[in-house]
Amino acid sequence: MRILLVEPNARKAEETTRHMEKAGFTVDHVDTGHDGLGMLKSYNYDLAVMEVRLKDLDGFEVIRVSRAARVPTPVLVLSEEREAATKVRAFSTGADDYVTRPYESMELTARMQAVIRRSKGYSEPTLRAGPLELCLDSRAVSVQGHCVHLTGKEYMILELLLLRKGMVLTKDAFLNHLYGGMDEPEMKIIDVFICKLRKKLQVAGAGQLIATVWGQGYVLRDEAPTLATAPLGASMPHVTVA
Questions:
Q1: pLDDT tens digits along 82-96
Q2: What value does the mean pLDDT of the chain take?
Q3: 3-class DSSP state for residue 212?
Q4: In this predicted structure, what is the pLDDT of residue 118?
Q5: Of 20, 155, 179, 202, which is the most buried if we count CB atoms within 10 A?
Q6: Which GO terms describe its biological process (predicted)?
Q7: CB within 8 A of 192, min separation 6: which ones?
Q8: Is 148 left (phi over 0), alpha (psi -120 to 50) or beta?
Q9: Tens digit of each residue's pLDDT (9 = 90 or more) over 106-120
Q10: Count of CB atoms within 10 A of residue 82's CB?
Q11: Residue 182 carries which DSSP code?
């Protein structure tokens, strides 16, 4: 999962990034409110973790403006500010959770995962599709109880497909999820990752879940895809699992 960290203090940012990366998150860090707002508007993050006391545009304003712009990214405030009024203001402007410093890394990770699950419409940490299960907390993937070993990039792709099950995802969406618009490789690398992921799932008995929608991208479904009813006057997309 890709996280945007908005933290003006370099030492705190480094410490928090280390905790997040150890928990399996991919982190982009900025140190100003304007940069944070720009990143939120430009890229799709699973979560923004934000200090409210920033050098230029405070975190409350970043949250308020992003909500006004209909940016869907959930926000967890991470701050030394402990006053009830500050927390109330954060929630009233659109924050989804509030954690105070100093924090326990395990608690922060659990709160982050809970906010992300709620934002995706899941109340528990395990995502399922047919015989496939993925645990967001442990990053374990299994098919009918048998563990499937994935690389970091393969896991991130499968995680995104499961979180947006039934939605066609473009290669741009995968690149953004994997690299966040920074040092992105050529788009064909997504086809390579999908091919390797499919082979591992095929061996485990779940190779038919990821379908190709030609000219659009990839989609994960609970069962092998079948033709759906298209809107009147629209052409049906060509769907295949090959």
A1: 899 999 999 999 999
A2: 86
A3: strand
A4: 85
A5: 20
A6: regulation of DNA-templated transcription
A7: none
A8: beta
A9: 889 989 988 988 887
A10: 10
A11: S
